[in-house]
Amino acid sequence: MKNLVEVKNIHKSYLKVGMNFSGTRIQVLNGVTFDIEEGLCVGLIGESGSGKSALSRLILGLDKPDKGQGTIHIQGQPVRQWIKKNPGKISVVFQDFASSVNPMYTIREAISEPLRASGQRGNIDAKIDELLQKVGLFLDAKDRYIHELSGGQIQRICIARAISTNPKFLVLDEAISSLDVSVQTQILDLLQQLQVEMKMTYLFIAHDLQAVSHLCNKILFLYKGEIVEELHSGQLANVQNHYAKKLLGSVIPFEI
Ligand SMILES: Nc1ncnc2c1ncn2[C@@H]1O[C@H](COP(=O)(O)OP(=O)(O)OP(=O)(O)O)[C@@H](O)[C@H]1O
Hints:
- By secondary structure, this protein is an alpha/beta fold.
- It has 9 helices and 10 strands.
- A 6-stranded mixed sheet has the order 6-7-8-3-9-10, with helices on both faces. A 4-stranded antiparallel sheet has the order 2-1-4-5.
- Helix 4 crosses helix 5 and helix 4 runs parallel beside helix 6.
- The chain is globular, with a radius of gyration of 19 Å.
- Keywords: ATP-binding, Nucleotide-binding, Transport.
């Protein structure tokens, strides 16, 4: 299978806040290398502060690696160049759904915004109906306000916005972490169904191994800015790294 995304030897550091301009930097990513094959779901799991969001910002082209310290390619092109040439083909769903979409928007406004921004013309209402159907929301309530919806419903709207441009690659950055457990399962099922239906490739970032193993074909364990283990979801019992074993041990009873 062809690689869609190739991340090679990425290093990323940030200036430490409050150091009186002394120039001290903290190293957040330390030689991160991995591939995402087209049509698959790769899970990135790691504890808080391990560098997951920093890595997702680089993959989304929102930030750059340290100068000369690694590359990210999509379909063989540097990520920022690919994004420019393929508008709307990479999308993201964040954890914080409440601030991802204006609560004073109606459902119609929330979904038509990315459609219009990506230059879609024609029957926007029909497109909104199609998207609402895809994410399992009622079609007859397009004039309801976002603030009237439940967390799970708002996240469905965020997913509808993210898929409105027919992306090839979807980054899910802790997209289910703020939802109730029962709603998490529904959203995971929805994501699984959409991935097949729309032939998308996913990077699914989470700190919950159960969710990751449910959805993903391959799982990367990020620990203090390094990928310490890479496993296919069928091979979780072969885990070698101590940190990855500990994470797995909390879900599956292992001798560690
Ligand atoms: N723009 C920034 N400036 C300075 N430091 C940053 C910046 N972004 C991230 N960091 C630091 O980088 C480290 C990794 O942060 P990151 O948000 O990537 O972790 P994470 O694994 O996503 O954590 P969480 O699961 O809590 O979201 C943290 O120590 C954070 O303070």
